[in-house]
Design goal:
Chain lengths: ~170, ~210
């Protein structure tokens, strides 16, 4: 990054300053570091935005840049699953039944290999975290392998934010 | 705040004395194989002649919430119209190996486990839309399970009216007292949903408790 000589305002590229000789133009020895221009959009991106963007990307890009986070640990036995491809199914299954007339969403798609767990335990110390699932619903479902699930009841039983209207009045 | 909460509680009790609810949405909850679907079938068939779902000895036979609206039940002069919600069994651990041991092929067992897990979550989501809960427990089983204790505690925290229905009371080794002792603060009604034992008492209790 460049520095600016405080005496003659000359810009000097980083690494080219000889402190003994000073500024090549005026010989001054006081310099100001010039901060690179910030990129506010990139900096303000939250995890949910990142996941939402990742879900909108083309399938080829998805395959290359998966939003699945991996907790550091030992090397996994199998390649991490790309949860971004599964986002549609769990999001639909997690729709809250907030109204009395609400009908449960069809769940035919879960038979087609989509993952429903929030956290998959690959081995001790190595986990796949399904960020879309974690962000879209409050229930924690852990899985050791496909077909072997653990449901954290206390997280699932937390009441929804919107209480049903009319319960008290009826 | 505490005073307001107490006043609200007192008012709702006084209101309940004079205003009887005529319609209620009741969820049937409990662990797998406790007899929830058998009970739902019994209630619906006793008053409409229809059934709600297929009951089986294989756990997690019901993997989707099923609803039957407008079932008017009568017991000892009292009556109430129920929307009966039959729910998948609540469990903390679902393993496809358990299904394979019952002769189900591996692919089907894995699919069943996945559906059952989704069913647990779906069942819990329905709690936000209920007026009361029938918590079905198996008289043959130890009541001090994580599912029973967690669900009872959660119902209490939600102030959701609840009846504990002890099913399979007619089997050898059944212990209704064990369940009464585990949850002494709740009304416990022992029945046999399969044989229809004590159903009149259950209907009467439902009409009074949820009406």
């Amino acid at each position: 990054m460049p520095h600016k000589c405080l005496d003659c305002k000359n810009l000097i590229e980083s690494g080219t300053i000889d402190l003994q000789k000073g500024c090549p133009v005026c010989g001054g020895k006081k310099f100001q570091y010039i901060r690179p221009p910030s990129q506010p959009e990139e900096r303000k991106q939250t995890v949910s935005e990142y996941v939402a963007r990742a879900a909108l990307r083309e399938p080829q890009v998805e395959a290359r840049e998966s939003p699945v986070s991996r907790i550091p640990g030992r090397k996994p036995k199998e390649a991490p699953h790309d949860y971004a491809r599964d986002e549609k199914a769990p999001a639909r299954a997690a729709e809250p039944l907030s109204t009395a007339k609400a009908k449960p969403a069809p769940r035919d798609d879960i038979t087609k290999g989509e993952h429903i767990e929030s956290i998959r335990i690959i081995e001790n110390g190595t986990y796949d975290i399904n960020l879309p699932m974690l962000l879209s619903r409050k229930e924690l479902v852990m899985s050791k392998e496909e077909g072997n699930y653990m449901v954290d009841l206390s997280s699932a039983l937390k009441p929804g934010k919107k209480k049903r209207k009319g319960r008290k009045g009826r | 705040m505490a005073l307001i909460a107490r006043l609200k509680g007192s008012l709702s009790k006084i209101k309940a004395l004079f205003i009887r609810r005529k319609k209620a949405r009741i969820g049937i909850y409990g662990p797998p194989n406790a007899g929830k679907t058998t009970l739902a079938n019994r209630i619906v068939s006793d008053f409409t002649g229809e059934t709600m779902g297929v009951a089986s000895h294989v756990p997690h036979e019901t993997r989707r919430v099923k609803k039957r609206e407008g079932v008017t039940i009568r017991g000892n002069g009292a009556s109430i119209t129920l929307d009966v919600i039959d729910t998948p069994g609540l469990a903390t651990r679902i393993d496809f190996h358990d299904f394979m041991q019952m002769g189900i092929p591996e692919d089907e067992a894995r699919r069943r486990a996945k559906e059952a897990t989704e069913g647990v979550i779906e069942a819990i989501k329905w709690m936000d839309n209920l007026d009361g809960v029938l918590l079905v427990m198996d008289a043959m089983e130890d009541p001090y399970t994580q599912v029973n204790v967690t669900v009872v505690g959660n119902m209490e925290a939600r102030h959701l009216p609840m009846l504990i229905v002890v099913n399979k009371m007619d089997l050898d080794g059944a212990s209704v007292d064990r369940i009464k002792g585990a949850f002494p603060q709740h009304t416990v009604v022992p029945i046999s949903a399969l044989n229809g034992t004590n159903m009149e008492l259950l209907y009467e209790t439902i009409a009074h408790r949820f009406g």
